[in-house]
């Protein structure tokens, strides 16, 4: 068996065997497969597809190319993955809420990608907190608190790490088959019993249409279930930021408000409850999604989720009194500039990608890999679609490191937010459920 013959078969639209796909994935991890061969494989997969069985085989092979965790815990091991959006910080309250409900959530997360924020960057806005831990410490935190949100080690799905980098420079990122295998190989390497997927759709998401988001959701659900993990996906609206804020420390503050004040009437809280309820039912911890949602709501309102979050923060190196004193411990930007509507009407549309890029330019995300992030900057108090505004209504407040950055962001935001005479139609937060 060799890379050239496998690529030729895929090029000629022949069905690859599980053995061929497994050999190729192992070759990616070991270096036997060259960069040129990996790029040719990715292009052939983009153009011709792998098929349902091929997606499962590639997912399993890339998962098994590195460490696969196994757990001995007194409850189901579960996780959630989002395809990325703006103001999307559900992982922060969801993980401790799940832990408070008796399941275990070892969440291996990522950093910001393009215009979307990263869970690890948000967590690391908390002073002293470090998300890079070894496996022994990861296991210890999960066992002690029920949840841990950490970065992936180089030993998790190394075949995917190699192929992901090559896809980025060979114009093959868009392949549904390769996106599916990339997402799931890393998630399933965590040794999960159940997985919930939040597939975003809209102006602030990578998938802009329901058709594209639905195709990705079906591929993910079918492949994950085929690989032996009970999985469901929610297609959720991302035509506006999910939280009231965008930016690392500001989104942590939104989550702390929810977990310490018990206010569950926000889109952020409603989606956290929906994802958590579905995951408790999938894992068998509850009989129905409705019963699961009730348990998640209770954990968010009675302080148990906040307490678990505080324990996790402390074990990751953050302040031991963060839950009590988060308002003074989160960093704050020196310049806070309101952006006014400038005209009467309704907030009719938002370019979510443009909002995300405005936060990146403020320093809240990375224009190049490895760049430093300013955790203080971002947007707060973002008005929701359909809100009636007067000329002096504050659409959002820019948090910036200096006046020049604040002025540039304000100009970006005025172009990104549309005020119109008519109120837009309201979309549901959860557009579809796939699998279950």
CATH class of the largest domain: Alpha Beta
The number of distinct helices, counting runs of at least 4 residues, comes to 17
How does the major sheet shape up? Answer: 4 strands, mixed
CATH topology of the largest domain: Pyrimidine Nucleoside Phosphorylase, Chain A, domain 2
SSE order in H/E notation?
HHHHEHEHHEHHEHEHHHHHEEHEEEHEE
Strand content: 5-15%
Q: Which CATH architecture of the largest domain is right?
A: 3-Layer(aba) Sandwich
Number of domains: 3
Average pLDDT over all residues: 94
Helix content: 40-55%
Looking across the biggest beta sheet, what order are the strands in? 1-4-5-12
The 3D shape can be described as globular
Number of strands: 12
Which residues sit in consecutive blocks of at least 5 with pLDDT less than 50? none
CA-atom Rg in angstroms: 22 Å
- The secondary structure category is alpha/beta
| CATH H-level superfamily title of the largest domain | Nucleoside phosphorylase/phosphoribosyltransferase catalytic domain
Q: Could you characterize the architecture of this molecule?
A:
There is one protein chain. The chain has 436 residues and is α/β, with parallel strands linked by helices. The protein folds into 3 domains: 47 residues, no CATH class; 248 residues, Pyrimidine Nucleoside Phosphorylase, Chain A, domain 2 (3-Layer(aba) Sandwich); 86 residues, Aldehyde Oxidoreductase, domain 3. The protein is 48% helix and 15% strand. The strands form 4 sheets. It has a 4-stranded mixed β-sheet, with helices on both faces. It has a 3-stranded antiparallel β-sheet with strand order 6-10-8. The protein has a 3-stranded antiparallel β-sheet with strand order 9-7-11. The relative contact order is 0.14.
């Amino acid at each position: 068996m060799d890379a050239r013959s496998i690529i030729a078969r895929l090029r000629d639209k022949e069905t690859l065997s599980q053995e061929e796909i497994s050999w190729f994935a192992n070759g990616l991890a070991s270096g036997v497969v060259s960069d040129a061969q990996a790029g040719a494989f990715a292009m052939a997969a983009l153009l011709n597809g792998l098929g349902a069985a091929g997606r499962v085989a590639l997912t399993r092979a890339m998962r098994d190319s590195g460490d696969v965790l196994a757990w001995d815990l007194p409850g189901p091991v579960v996780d959630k993955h989002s395809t990325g959006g703006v103001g999307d910080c559900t992982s922060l309250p969801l993980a401790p809420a799940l832990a408070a409900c008796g399941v275990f959530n070892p969440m291996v997360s990522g950093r910001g990608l393009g215009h979307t924020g990263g869970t690890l960057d948000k967590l690391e806005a908390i002073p002293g907190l470090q998300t890079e831990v070894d496996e022994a410490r990861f296991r210890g935190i999960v066992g002690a608190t029920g949840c841990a949100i950490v970065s992936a080690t180089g030993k998790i799905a190394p075949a995917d790490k190699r192929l992901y980098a090559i896809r980025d420079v060979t114009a093959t990122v868009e392949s549904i088959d390769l996106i599916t295998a990339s997402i799931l190989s890393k998630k399933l390497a965590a040794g999960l019993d159940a997985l919930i997927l939040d597939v975003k759709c809209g102006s602030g998401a990578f998938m802009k249409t329901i058709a594209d988001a639905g195709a990705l959701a079906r591929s993910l659900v079918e492949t994950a279930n085929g690989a032996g993990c009970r999985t469901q996906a929610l297609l959720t609206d991302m035509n506006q930021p999910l939280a009231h804020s965008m930016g690392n420390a500001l989104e942590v503050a939104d989550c702390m408000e929810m977990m310490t004040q018990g206010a569950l009437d926000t889109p952020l809280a409603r989606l956290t409850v929906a994802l958590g309820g579905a995951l408790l039912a999938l894992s068998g911890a509850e009989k129905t999604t409705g019963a699961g949602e009730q348990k998640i709501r209770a954990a968010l309102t009675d302080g148990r989720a906040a307490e678990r979050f505080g324990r996790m923060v402390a074990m990751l190196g953050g302040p031991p009194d963060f839950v009590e004193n988060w308002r003074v411990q989160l960093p704050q930007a020196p310049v806070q500039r309101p952006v006014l509507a400038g005209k009467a009407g309704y907030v009719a549309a938002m370019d979510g990608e443009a909002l995300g890029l405005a936060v990146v330019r403020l320093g809240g995300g990375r224009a190049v890999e490895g760049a430093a992030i300013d955790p203080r900057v971002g947007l707060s108090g973002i008005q929701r679609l359909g809100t009636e505004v007067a000329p002096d209504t504050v659409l959002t407040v820019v948090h910036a490191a200096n006046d020049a950055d604040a002025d540039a962001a304000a100009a970006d935001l005025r172009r990104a937010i549309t005020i119109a005479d008519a109120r837009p139609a309201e979309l549901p937060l959860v557009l579809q459920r796939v699998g279950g």
